[in-house]
Design brief:
Blueprint: E1 10-17, E2 21-22, E3 27-28, E4 34-37, E5 42-48, E6 58-59, E7 62-72, E8 74-77, E9 81-84, E10 87-96, E11 105-109, E12 126-130
Parallel strand pairs: 5-11
Antiparallel strand pairs: 1-7, 1-12, 2-7, 3-6, 4-8, 5-7, 9-10, 9-12, 10-11
Length: about 140
């Protein structure tokens, strides 16, 4: 059964760059394939080379990109493509809620965990979560 239709992109601005990585982080994938985000919320961007999407999957190998402030509310879905300043970075793997209600960790699948400086990230860069071209 087809569940998802077209949607607008979720946009944001990078507010803090993170520089570290971990191989033992122990994040846990939430059982949700999507999360609604509101304008003004701040969430963390985390890269990983894990590819499991089952609820409860443990995510250990991570690189931290930074925090974004949402500028246009919407729905972020597993499989959306994260862009920074128009460059694709990876696809949304899922969400970890260990810091709720403060923020979500938005897990982004990349070939290898990457940090903010490795991608040349800077505060105020434009962030976009874009639905893959399916329509």
């Amino acid at each position: 059964m087809r569940e998802n239709g077209p949607k607008r992109s979720v946009t944001g601005v990078l507010v803090k760059v993170l520089v570290h990585r971990r191989d033992d982080r122990g994040m846990v994938l939430e059982p949700f394939a999507s999360r609604c985000v509101r304008r003004g919320e701040v969430h963390e961007l985390v890269t990983t080379d894990h590819d499991e999407t089952a609820a409860g999957s443990r995510i250990d190998r991570v690189g931290f990109l930074g925090f974004l402030e949402v500028t246009a509310a919407g729905v972020i879905d597993r499989g959306d493509v994260l862009h920074v300043e128009g460059r694709p970075v990876g696809t949304v793997l899922g969400f970890d809620g260990c810091h709720l209600p403060n923020h979500y960790n938005i897990l982004v699948a990349t070939p290898a965990p990457r940090t903010g400086p490795e991608l040349g990230l800077l505060p105020e860069q434009r962030i976009v979560f874009r639905q893959p071209d399916r329509y």
